[in-house]
Amino acid sequence: VSRAELAAAEAEVRNAERTLAGEVRSAAVRLLAIERIRGLRGQQIVVSDELAAFMSRRIQTGEASVVDMTQVELESKQLATQVLQLDVERAGVLGEFRRLLGLSAAEPINISGELSEPRGIPSSRANLAARGDYQAAQATLEAAQQSVAVAKANKWEDVGIGLTAEHERAEDAPEGFERDTMLGFRVS
Description:
This protein is α+β, with helices and mostly antiparallel strands. The protein has three helices and two strands; from the N terminus they run αααββ. Helix 1 packs antiparallel against helix 3.
């Protein structure tokens, strides 16, 4: 029973490691995705500013309306607001990442690289036997089965069977020597 309970505890630790690794990977992917989106929004702002300058020149020549230029400027400001929101989201994900890794706020985090394009839907065939939570459940089941077996074994008291033999010689003053032999069978 103790071995099975120890195996269950070890499997729970492996599951916690697996879960933590997944959370760290997820936070790293979110950071990379935020950086990529922020870069794209920055490029959109540059293009939007170029379009606003172009629209300004067209307004001076009378080829465009002020409403169109105002619309372009509004979209540029919305993109700038989205960049600020992405910065806030990035700070939150960095805080979560630090917590997961056990780092202080003063320690720098540098995640580099780019996310690859999705190649397709992942396989739905998971190897359950390799997962820590599955192993923990199996070990807990084994511990419970062992506990049931121990309880069943302790249901009945121990049975003891014995055979005793005793021979006694005693002197009785007027009668002489007496011999007593006893044979016994004992069940407990």
